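User:
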Amino acid sequence: MRRLCRSTILIHSSYVAKLYSIPLIRVDDMRSLSLTCLLILAIAVAGCGSRKVSPTNSSSNAPAAATSDDVLISAVHQLRPENFGINSTTDKPVSLLNSWRYKQAEIQKITDQATIDKLVPVKFPSGWISPDEKPRLEQAKYDAMDASHIRDALFNRVIAGYLSDRGQGELQKVAIIVDFVCRNVALWKDDEIELPLLPYLCLQLGRGSSDDRAWVCSEILKQLRIDSVVIRPKSAKKTTGENWLLGVLVEGQVYLFDMRLGLPIMSDSNTNETSIATLAEIVTHPEWLEQMSVNEPYRLTVEDLREPTIYLITNANFWSYRMFNLEQVLPPSDLCVLYDPLMDDEGRVGQLNRVAKFGGWPAESLKSWSYPRLQVLELRSISEEKVQESQRLTLPFSVPIPVKVDDEGKATVGVPERKMQKTRSEHLLGKFADATSKYLRIRHLEVEPNPPEIARINRIASEDAFYWTTLCKYEMGEYATAVELLTDYLKKYDRKGRWYFPARSLLAQSYARLNQTSKAISTLERSSSDDPYRQANAVRMKRWGATAKN
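Assistant: Predicted structure:
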């Protein structure tokens, strides 16, 4: 294994030190650095495995004079996405949540309404979750998994809010969200190691698969109380692979999106965001599927979609009744969807029956989409190779990293300032102008003198900041500036760039937004077999060409 550090470097990490009760970690080889990265990844996805967490069930973690509302406000504040990042520990917010629960229980005892400490059974069809998950969902205590769930819901609520503001009707809002996710989650290249990522980290890293894109979309749409399903041919022998479409249930129809291409199935040849095909319509319009391919048949036919198998995209963390207790008392500024039971609950229609009724499908015919569970299972036994790859992708979030060199020339690395991580969060939370100026400062780190190991991390962070700046410009509608920056990015990094293929596609889309169709098409005319966007680009060129003729 190649050594990362040729000289002795001391890396201080406050959260690692806390976990291991040591002041600092000496990183002399890749093994130690991989451990650091594994901890980062484990904290980011806390709550997805079966590991038990034992939060304190006591009021001693909050000042005795603090009211129940005070404790809740403090807990939620710490769980907001701008405060609870990928390297945050869950101890304090979980402790505060349980202190709030303890205070609520004391109040309820006085009024003879002790419900917050009850174990509430969770109902689900056989095989939909693992047996060890059921007790955790039914417990009254909050744990680390809940902390991540609440953070993710708050995060997705903000994204859903500013994106839905751009649309007029439900369908247009959905189309905007799907487009945003596909633009911000770049597809893995053929030579990259695909990591098991949960939606929050997938968005933060800006990498993922078509399945990841669908999962992220479903989590954002959940905050608008919109359901999503995966549609597969009934004849499909496997539940993995690309042979599926995302179905979004709005306006009385199931609208179809191809998450590999990052495009809706269109009901005509133009790019009108409301001309999206529905599952009911597609079976009589084979030409709509033919529009989704160039030079080869589309991977799905109308026969595949005539009587498909429907897989419900669901998240068991929404089923826990303690999330209902919490959702009811959230501060107005933090209102979000935390609770959505799978089965009917006290007058509330559960997600399973709700989706079945919407689509006219028998409830017993609906299946659970297995992809999220498979990701969680892989995370529990993640390979060393993927740990190292996660390190490569997450280390740039640490910058700036202060360095001190003593008289003997020994470099000591201080606590990472993690401004890149904070800026990326601001970017995704819709603060595009602020993120743009902060990305510029990170880009300047590339030219500052540093030890080789830190300089390498700065170079990676600088490139990420460069590309993410172009995304901010695009989101702000500054397409001409996006064109200029994307052109500069492609000249500087060429095919060696980490974002070469998505940048090339985004450049063409920026030209299209400026109604410069010929430039958009010429940008994508040259293609290569290793470009994960080649099919999507071919379809876009076909659509742009048809629009130009009209």
